[in-house]
Amino acid sequence: MTIRVLAAGDHFVTNGLLADALREAIGAGCDVAELTLPWPLEPFGRVAEVDEASGTEDELIEALRGVTICLTQMAPLTERILAAAPDLRLFCVGRGGPVNVNLDAASRHGVAVSYAPGRNATATAEHTLGMILAVLRRIPETHTDLAAGRWRGDYYRYDQVGPELAGSTVGLVGYGAIGSRVARMLAGFGADVLVHDPYVAPEALAGAAEQVSLDDLLRRSRIVSLHARATPATRGMIGAEQIAALPAGAVLVNCARGALVDYDAVCDALDSGKLFGAAFDVFPEEPIPAGARLLRTRGVVMTPHLAGASRQTAENAARIIAAEAGRYLRGEPLAHCANPGVQIRRPAG
């Protein structure tokens, strides 16, 4: 029996990468169809009941006809799509979490959902370090002035320069695949690292960082970098009260999720001089609205949600989910199943 696979790639995790990874993982024997989704040329958004998806329910329903396995990064998987795809057994999402999937509905329909943890960990950690350095050394501001023909000596004033990373205390909120890499990189700069992560055992820090409460981390850190997931417990975790607890002249960096931060409180702190600077790769609304206060607040470094944008990230995503397809076809347990209690239906034959 020939298994039909849908590669629903986009312009980052491309169908070419998915096809190459499938050949490496399972060889021949699959009939691979392709669907190209518009992300990132068009922003992702909400599709029916799922978030951060690209494409429509109608095009997925059509593309999934007769398909047993789907490999994707951004395609939505909704109740309506599942009801119209009776042959689907495995839906592989090349992201750190399957936010574009209705997991409860997938389990009810007997569809296993897998994902790709850590696929962008190195890229995001490197980007985080770049953002920290960009703020501390005012790289975007000074570049903009030079490009406009302005050579400003006042950037060299003592009250305008930032601290070095060497000897600075950096607080990391979250110590997963990304946060732990950031900690190792910071050690190479000679920074002192504090960590707040209630899910990490102290021995996992292996002397690379000190585990502390969030209050202690905020009080002691010159630089705070967020690496937590957006959950009901973490939404808005950094607001006016937490910023007030930081030392004067601190720096806040967020390359995790926009929901973690009260951005108006950040702008207030930048305007007052409480914060030396801030750097954000993620925002509460993406793309950023034209009139957003962040766009006119001095001291903010911004990138458009591309901390994980490296070639290795795209290649890792394709490889990880193609390997899951291989495990499924060989009857092996999935390595990264998001709904492990699902009763997976096996194709006939």
The total of helices stands at 11
Strand content: 15-25%
Average pLDDT, to the nearest integer? 95
CATH class of the largest domain: Alpha Beta
Structural class: alpha/beta
Q: Helical proportion? A: 25-40%
SSE series: EHEEEHEHEHEHHEHEEHEHEHEEH
Sequence stretches where pLDDT stays below 50 over 5 or more residues: none
Please report the total strand number as a whole number.
14
At CATH level 3, the topology of the largest domain is Rossmann fold
Q: Which CATH architecture of the largest domain would you pick? A: 3-Layer(aba) Sandwich
Folded structure, characterized:
- The chain has 349 residues and is of the alpha/beta class.
- It has 2 domains: 137 residues, Rossmann fold (3-Layer(aba) Sandwich); 182 residues, Rossmann fold (3-Layer(aba) Sandwich).
- It is built from 11 helices and 14 strands.
- The chain has a 7-stranded parallel sheet with strand order 10-9-8-11-12-13-14, sandwiched between helices.
- The mean pLDDT is 95.
